[in-house]
Write a structure and sequence with these properties.
The chain is mostly beta strands. It is 0% helix and 38% strand. It has one domain: GroES chaperonin (10 Kd Chaperonin, Protein Cpn10, Chain O).
Length: 107
């Protein structure tokens, strides 16, 4: 249940994710450039699921998930940083199908 090049087996309801590379600058919906120095309110972060435990029911490996970056535990495996969390700490999973009402997310 884990990525083939990782030598780890997840237990219970744990999810191991690889946080998306955060650029130094962001763009608003209207195309305005937002510098990295701007302090935003509490923002959630996207990540890719790398490994899941046997009791995880709502996500699969390679899903993109949304979580609160303040509620995380970082771990380093093979010189790369990952985030370890419980399934209940995930807020949303990105969906490729639009059968969920066209939002692209299911909550």
């Amino acid at each position: 249940m884990s990525e083939p090049n990782l030598s780890i087996r997840m237990l219970h309801d744990r999810v191991l994710v690889d946080v998306d590379a955060v650029g130094t600058e962001r763009r608003s919906g209207g195309g305005i450039l937002i510098p990295a120095t701007v302090q935003m309110g509490r923002r959630l972060t996207w990540a890719k699921v790398v490994a899941i435990g046997p009791n995880v029911r709502s996500v699969e490996v390679d899903d993109r998930v949304l979580f609160d970056p303040e509620d995380r535990a970082e771990v380093e495996l093979q010189a790369k940083s990952f985030v370890l969390m419980r399934e209940r700490d995930l807020h949303a999973v990105a969906s490729t199908a639009t059968a969920d009402g066209g939002t692209g997310l299911y909550l």
